[in-house]
Specification:
heterodimer, A: 144 residues, alpha+beta, VC0802-like, Alpha-Beta Plaits, 2 domains, seven-stranded antiparallel beta sheet, B: alpha/beta, Rossmann fold, eight-stranded mixed beta sheet, 20 strands, 26% strand, globular
Chain lengths: 144, 419
């Protein structure tokens, strides 16, 4: 029940992002979702890809500062209140969301939410049991 | 001063240093020389040099020629690594230093009763207290504003009617900007003289300061190891700095060979003190590059002149009057986990003030998909830098491998200041 995320520490400078995306393109790796968090002179790119192991290997070989982490993926109905329900139930269970990004899935009337919490395993369980939402796995990502 | 009298003073001071300071006895012995081998200034070159790193080894008392009980004050400047260089003063040293500074002020027409705003920092740094005691010795009225709080400085300058301003040249420039922002006209202020030092500044910067503050700006030279400010001073001609030749023997040497150079040739300034009781310096290498004037000045003073400073033999930076060595930065970084040891210092002027940023490369292992850890590392480095350097430095973290590597000497410093 895991989704792997690739994160890369980058200087906030022109061409740094494209050097990452170029490396992924050269490795024939498809980005499913991505976000950039910035803090002044540096930033972190976080991405969900169809082949995280290979993506990690490629970026590492190309001397990027890269990390593979497991995150929570949830498929929620694309309607008002979905995220509100998730954050409420996690809050009630004292689980803290560290970061989150979300995308609507074309042609499916659903949204994909990717987030990291201070207890991913319990977060997955609670979302599944209490909200009945679908927990996304890496295999689901590859077939999205 | 007559050369016989100078030679006598020199011999007396060499003998004093040799007898009282174990460091000199050891250094003289290893160079196989005794104070008696020197008959005067002309054969001073037999004596070995004193380096800043020698002084650092004597932390926290410094090179001390008197009993600790006779020390009435300590000052310190940043050392090349973590430890500062300490200088001690006897009661007589403090008095002689004050006389020297008073003579500097007189040389540019400052008089008893003049109002002097002293914006040099008070503390371990010699600038504040050095000018303060000198100005009081002269009989001027001192307004001891110290550094910082510029709005208030400007208000006080206006209200007290300061005629003389003592500070670093970059701070003088900054003050002029704040005066302008306050819609004040410098021409309406009684300010007429600036005593500016503690960092190198060019003639073009002088033009800007003189113009924007409507003053005459004079260069004052000094260094804590030599006592502090007041070692040398420009006269009203603004053509070289007079060095008090009854207080110091000044030499210019070739930095690599140590050979003494004739007037007119550029080299490293070396000083031997003729007055210091607590921390005598014998052939102290300042690291400053300049040259000696050959001819006498048109002004009344017969004290020999040196040119304005042209640079440094080492990589010392002067940031807002504070000495910063890249080795200090290296020292701080070496104790911090998660950084690679590759760094670059970027110096610029923001408005009139020096601004220093350090780009620090992190190791790949520090990155854990978290912003928090990197920001904490950055803050940690900034506070460690402040603890050692005493100035605020912005730290930028850089991804591994992105600081340019070089084959030879690494280019650690990028200095974009116009000085």
């Amino acid at each position: 029940m895991m989704v792997y995320q690739i994160s890369v520490f980058l200087e906030n400078k022109p061409n740094r992002l494209s050097s990452v995306t170029q490396a992924l393109k050269d490795g024939n790796i498809n980005l499913r979702a991505a976000m950039i968090a910035e803090a002044g002179e540096f930033g972190i790119i976080r991405a969900i890809v169809d082949d995280p192991d290979n993506a990690y290997k490629l970026l590492d070989e190309n001397n990027f500062t890269v990390k593979k982490t497991n995150v929570v993926g949830v498929e929620a109905a694309d309607g008002p209140g979905s995220l509100s329900e998730i954050s409420k139930v996690l809050g009630a269970n004292e689980i803290n969301i560290i970061y989150l990004y979300a995308f609507t899935l074309s042609g499916k009337n659903a949204a994909l939410l990717i987030f990291k919490t201070d207890d991913n395993q319990r977060a997955r369980q609670i979302i599944k049991d209490e909200l009945g939402m679908k927990i996304i796995t890496q295999r689901d990502i590859n077939t999205l | 001063m007559e050369s016989d009298e100078r030679n006598r003073l020199l011999k007396k001071n060499l003998d004093y240093a040799y007898r009282k300071v174990p460091h000199y006895k050891k250094a003289f012995k290893s160079a196989n020389v005794k104070p008696d081998d020197v008959t005067g200034v002309d054969d001073l070159s037999k004596i070995p040099f004193l380096y800043k790193k020698d002084l650092r080894d004597y932390y926290p008392t410094g090179i001390l020629a008197v009993d600790k009980k006779e020390v009435v004050r300590y000052h310190a400047s940043s050392g090349t690594t973590g430890k500062p260089t300490v200088v001690s003063y006897t009661r007589k040293d403090i008095r002689t230093w004050a006389e020297m500074v008073a003579d500097c002020l007189r040389l540019v027409g400052v008089k008893e009763g003049d109002i002097i705003q002293n914006s040099y920092g008070y503390g371990l740094f010699t600038g504040g207290l050095g000018l303060h005691y000198g100005a009081e010795h002269l009989g001027a009225s001192v307004v001891p504003t110290s550094g910082g709080n510029t709005q208030r400085q400007v208000q006080i300058m206006k209200d007290f009617g300061a005629q003389v301003l003592c500070c670093t040249p970059s701070y003088a420039l900054y003050l002029s900007e704040v005066i302008e922002q306050n819609d004040m006209d410098p021409k309406e202020l009684p300010l007429k003289i600036g005593i500016l030092g503690a960092e190198p500044w060019s003639d073009s910067m002088r033009d800007i300061i003189e113009d924007s503050l409507d003053i005459k700006a004079y260069d004052i030279y000094g260094m804590s190891e030599l006592g502090g400010p007041g070692v040398g001073m420009e006269c009203e001609r603004q053509d070289g700095l007079h060095i008090w030749d009854d207080k110091f023997i000044v030499e210019i040497i070739e930095p690599n060979t140590g050979e003494v150079l004739p007037p007119g040739e550029k080299g490293e300034l070396v000083f031997t003190s003729l007055w210091k009781e607590a921390s005598p310096v014998i052939r102290f290498r300042t690291g400053d590059i300049t040259y000696l004037y050959e001819d006498e000045c048109d002004c009344k003073s017969t004290h020999q002149r040196i040119g304005r400073l042209l640079g440094r033999t080492d990589d010392m930076l002067i940031i807002r009057g504070v000495n910063v060595f890249p080795s200090q930065i290296e020292h701080v970084l070496s104790k911090i986990k998660g950084v690679s040891g590759h760094y670059q210092i970027y110096v610029n002027r923001k408005g009139a003030l020096d601004d220093m940023e350090i780009f620090v490369e992190v190791t790949r292992s520090i990155f854990n998909d978290s912003m928090k850890e990197i920001l904490e590392l950055k803050e940690h480095i900034e506070s460690e830098m402040y603890a050692i350097l005493n100035i605020h430095v912005k730290v930028n973290v850089v991804e591994p491998g992105k600081i340019p590597r070089s084959e030879g000497k690494a280019k650690r410093i990028i200095d974009k200041r116009m000085i």
